[in-house]
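Quarterly update, task 2.4: WQD-bound model.
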Amino acid sequence: MAERILITGGTGYIGSHTAVVLSQLGHDIVLYDNLSNSSDAILDVLQEITGKPIPFVKGDIRDTDLVIHTLKSHNIDAIIHFAGLKAVGESVEKPLDYFANNIQGAISLLKALQTQSINTFIFSSSATVYGEPQYLPFDEEHPTNALTPYGRSKKHVEEILKDLASSNPALRISCLRYFNPVGAHESGLIGENPKGKPNNIMPFIAQVAIGDREELCVFGDDYPTSDGTGVRDYIHVMDLAEGHASSLAFLENNTGWHAFNLGSGTGFSVLELIHAFEEEANCTIPYRIIGRRAGDIAEYYSNPDKAAKLLGWKTKRNLNEMCSSTWQFQKKLN
Ligand code: NAD
Ligand code: WQD
């Protein structure tokens, strides 16, 4: 059933791809973002892709009154909550900024939601809530021992949502634990375009490939993994976006609090990722092995069975498609 959906953080990387998918499924979308890590220039691009204008409200999620006004004036049925800060290293240096934005922000949004009796809420959580693996693959029952303020902000919001769901049986809440989102829309018009030096590996590789950066530093080759480099479960951002549509459909028939891993179930090493990118971009990525990055985990990947069973969702796009779409986007940017 078509719904009217507020997407917080909607001009950001994952929010904008999700907006495309939901708009094309016939939902009415409203984007809400303070533009702290994105630009409203994306609105024209989204219109070009979807063929329709997407309403946008510039605002902070901590401005409860503005959120309430937006929910009322657009008659919103459901919220997908992407807005927040996401740089893990920065969260260690500025923990209060992360708690204020991610936790206070979520509380403000939830207070606004309650005033309008909206019951459906999807939260962008992260595999980082699990912390050091006690076993692999991570399933949703794995203990959550987030290791950084960023990760703890996600874990706390998940717990707030669980308490809220216990207090009100009408609520329908999904916490989606993303693994490593990468890639871009097939048009090459939207993708991940971080400000400054990328924290994450895929945009870094793309900037090396295009010649904006000299080489990739590989953070350690002495991990107990197949080739010694870190292993992650990379997920194409369009698969991830489709996971939100599946979650929305699931919540139509299910109340309560639910957590789902959104990942492919397969881990790839840094060297495997580099080689897949080289194949797709038909180039060589110069790289240098340096020491491990503080706080990195050797290896983790998802067990995606719960999402397959309950959401009827699984990833469709492989590592090469993640690299080729990133490359198409990077070429259009430059
Ligand atoms: P992004 O930075 O591109 O998007 C987040 C958006 O939220 C930005 O447009 C930013 O301007 C906006 N924003 C931040 N604080 C806000 C506030 N207080 N009020 C209104 N808008 C605000 O990040 P993304 O990669 O698209 O991530 C989206 C969500 O997914 C985040 O919650 C992130 O923590 C989560 N997540 C991301 C990843 C990843 O690797 N990209 C992995 C797991 C989870
Ligand atoms: C991937 C692999 C690095 C950069 C982070 C957050 C996580 C989630 C996704 C939000 C690792 C290696 C990286 C580089 C490298 N975000 N690497 N050289 O750290 O798995 O996850 O983003 O929720 O919470 O922690 O992603 O892309 O930084 O690293 O060798 O220049 O690439 O060591 O093995 P990570 P990443």
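Highlight for this quarter: The first helix runs from residue 13 to 24.
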